[in-house]
Amino acid sequence: MESWNGLGWKDLKAHPVPPLPWQGHLPLSQVPPSPVQPDLGHFQGSRGSHSFSGQSSLHRVQPVPGVSSWVEHPAGGYKKLFETVEELSSPVTAHVTGRIPTWLRGSLLRCGPGLFEVGSEPFYHLFDGQALLHKFDFKEGHVTYHRRFVRTDAYVRAMTEKRIVITEFGTYAYPDPCKNIFSRFFSYFKGVEVTDNALVNVYPVGEDYYACTETNFITRINPDTLETIKQVDLCKYVSVNGATAHPHIENDGTVYNIGNCFGKNFSLAYNIIRIPPLQADKEDPMNKSEVVVQFPCSDRFKPSYVHSFGLTPNYIVFVETPVKINLLKFLSSWSLWGANYMDCFESNETMGVWLHVAEKKKGRLLNLKYRTSAFNLFHHINTYEDNGFLIVDLCTWKGFEFVYNYLYLANLRANWDEVKRQAEKAPQPEARRYVLPLSIDKADTGKNLVTLPYTTATATLRSDETIWLEPEVIFSGPRHAFEFPQINYRKYGGKPYTYTYGLGLNHFVPDRLCKLNVKTKETWVWQEPDAYPSEPIFVSHPDALEEDDGVVLSIVISPGAGPKPAFLLILNAKDMSEVARAEVEVNIPVTFHGLFKRA
Ligand SMILES: [Fe+2]
Fold this sequence. Notes:
Elements: H1 2-6, H2 10-14, E1 47-52, E2 60-62, E3 92-93, E4 95-98, E5 106-115, E6 117-118, E7 121-122, E8 130-139, E9 142-149, H3 153-161, H4 181-189, E10 201-205, E11 208-212, E12 217-221, E13 228-233, E14 248-249, E15 255-262, E16 268-275, E17 290-296, E18 310-311, E19 315-320, E20 323-325, H5 327-337, E21 345-347, E22 353-359, E23 364-365, E24 369-372, E25 375-386, E26 389-398, H6 409-412, H7 416-425, E27 428-437, E28 458-461, E29 466-470, E30 472-475, E31 480-486, H8 489-492, E32 499-506, E33 509-517, E34 522-527, E35 537-540, E36 550-557, E37 566-572, E38 577-584, E39 593-598
Parallel strand pairs: 1-34, 24-29
Antiparallel strand pairs: 1-2, 3-9, 4-38, 5-8, 5-39, 6-7, 8-9, 10-11, 11-12, 12-13, 14-15, 15-16, 16-17, 18-19, 19-22, 20-21, 22-23, 22-24, 25-26, 26-27, 27-30, 28-29, 31-32, 32-33, 33-34, 35-36, 36-37, 37-38
Bound molecules: fe (ii) ion.
C-alpha cells in the first residue's frame, strides 16, 4: 500500500475498505454483481464502481470518491508501451492466477507496433512502428502467448537494407544513400511506395485472416502460427485507394468496409465495399468484392479522413469530419519534398461535421443533410434503428484539429507532467449519441424532430433543409477518454443495446478499463497502479442469456511488477471484476485492435 501513495493513490489509502468476501478467484458463475455505487460526480451523470486489485492477492471493490480519484503516472511506466521487443520463436506458457473459464477456448489476436526504430533510424509516430502480431491461446484453463512480426514489404526491406525503406504515417524514408544522384532523382519520380505496415487490426474474410493498416495493402496471415502468407492489394479487386481497419463483419461472414476513392479527373468519393461470405465453391471471396454505395465528398479536392463507419440491418452511416487529406500534396508534392502521410492532413475550420446515410440493400443515398459542430471521429461504438430514427453512438474528440498531431512518440514517451501539458492543448474527448430522423416533413421546420422518449439528443430542421444535430453526452471526463469501444458485437451489432466496454485514456495514457451502460450512463472501472491496459474485447458465454454474460479480455503491461511485466487480464463483463490473469515474462508493447477467434 505504501508505494501506492507515492503514485498518487491517496484516495485508496484515505478510504480503506476491507476485502469483500467474493473478491477472490471464484469461477465466473459464482461472482455476484457489484453493488451500484453513489454518484461519481466526475463522470457527467454517471454512476459506477471502481475495482482495484493492486498487489498479487488483494482484490477490492470500492466507490470512487470523486475527481481526485483520477490517477497520476509520475513513474512513467507507460513509456514501456513504446519500446521495441523481439518476436518469439515459439509460444511461451503464461502463469495463470485465478481460474480461466473452461468455456473460454480460442485465440485472442491483436496487432500493434513492435519495432520502433531500424538501426539508428527512429520512427516518429504512434502508427509507424513495424507490425507485430500477438496471440494468447486459451485451452482447458491453460494460456500460451506468441508473437511474430508481420513480414510486410516494409518490414522485410527494412531488415534486408538495415534502414527505413518505406515511408510510414509520420516517418519519411530517405532514399538509399548508396544510390547516385541520378538514380535517386528518378526514384523520386517513380512515385511514393505506399506502406503495407499492417499494425492496426486483424479481421476475417471467408476462412482467411488479414492484418491491416488503412492503405490498399492488407496482409494474409496464418492465425495459428502467425506466419505471413501474402500481401493483397485491394485495388486489384475493387475501386478504392484504401480501406479502414474497422470493417463490419456480419454473422454470415459478409464484410463491409469504407475507403476513399480517388477517381479520374480528381473525382472524389467514399466507397462502401462488400465482400460476400465464402460460398460452396470455396472461391476466394475477395474475387467477388464490389462497391455497393458511393458517398459524395464535401470538398472536390480534399476527402475527409475516415477511420470507421456505422452499419445497421438496413442503413449505412458515414460521418464526414473536418480532418481533411490534401490530395494535391498527397499526389504530387509528397515525393518531391520528402513528406509523410501526416504532412498531407489539414483541418477545414468551417464545415463542422456532415453525416450521410445510405440504404444498405438498395445502395441508395438518403437525400438528407445532417450537420453538427466539428469533431474528430475514430471509433463508432454502435448504430441502430428505432422507430424511424438512427441512433449513432460515437467516441468523439471535440474540435477540428487533428488528434493524431498529439500522437507522436516523443509526446507519448514524455515525462508525466509534459504528457499532461500536451494533452491539455488537444481536442477533448466525449462519447456522444446522435439521433438521425430518417424522414422529414417541411412543415416541421424549426422543430426538434426527435420524438424518442429516452434521449436528449435533438435534430432540428432548418429552413435550408439541413438537419442540425445536437448530441446526448453518454460519457465525458476532461482529458479522460472512453475510447477503443467494444460491444457484444455478434448479438448486438447494429441493434438496440445497453453496454459498451472501452479503454480509458488519461491524457492519452491508457490506464483503465471501463464498462458503460449507454442507457443509464452507469460505469464500472477496472484499474491498477502503474498498469496500462489495451482495448477490451468482449467474449460472450456460449450459453449467454443476457447481453453482458461473458468476459472481457485485455493485454495489460505492468512495468513495475518485476519479472512478469505483462499479462492477459480476464474480467467478468458483468461488473469488471477480475476473474483471472495470465502473466508472461516479456514486455508487450501497445496494441491497437484485435479479435477473439473461437476454437
Ligand atoms: Fe481504430
